[in-house]
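Researcher: I'm comparing several assemblies side by side, and this is the next one on my list. It has 232 residues spread over two chains. Same procedure as the others: predict the full complex and return the structure.
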Amino acid sequence: MKLSIQVNEGPYNHEASVSALNYTKAALEAGHEIFRVFFYHDGVNNGTRYTTPPQDDINIANSWSELADKHGLDLVVCVAAAQRRGIVDEGEQERNGKDGNNIAPGFRISGLGQLIEAGIQSERLVVFGD
Amino acid sequence: MSILHTVNKSPFDRNSLESCVRLAAKGGAVLMIEDGVYGAMKGTSKSDMVSNAMKDLTFYVLGPDLKARGVDEGKLIDGVKVVDYSGFVNLTVENDKVQNWL
């Protein structure tokens, strides 16, 4: 089945990001197709490559990137939510005159239309958040 | 048509479980995850609400989240079914729609 995931909460807030990650892994293991993972609100904080949690702690951002690399996931960060929270890719860096970028591998910044499309194209949309 | 409802907050923190139980249509499934698993415990002020709703709804609880909180399965309301993440995925597939109460 074609599934999409929405993540509304940042990593290390409560548990939603880890729940979403575990759910995505389980869905892939069961042979389902993940059409897209959309990061909205504080969820965009999953998409920075600069997180450095303690070594015995899960690195949530890296886990998404690894999963995207392994399964070709489409990890989309909401642009308006990202701009507010300082999640920047090369395009945004140039457009907004920033001195660097921090988007994690496998993530891309795009608009809310991507969430709507995911809702239409997928048979189920599962939302994790606060 | 059946809907899977997920509840991720404790019923002692938010009223999402209460809203879900009140509004979910007959034949639906309710999965308690994260702090929502506290809603599956017997002997609390919310237990009767869940037990009484069982005539219309099927209740599930996410096992790994129970374990993370040290809640023994023996402390669950009779009739609540424990699932793992693959069971969670199956529930989303088996039901026609998913409603996440956030």
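Model: For your comparison table: Chain B has one domain: 3-101.
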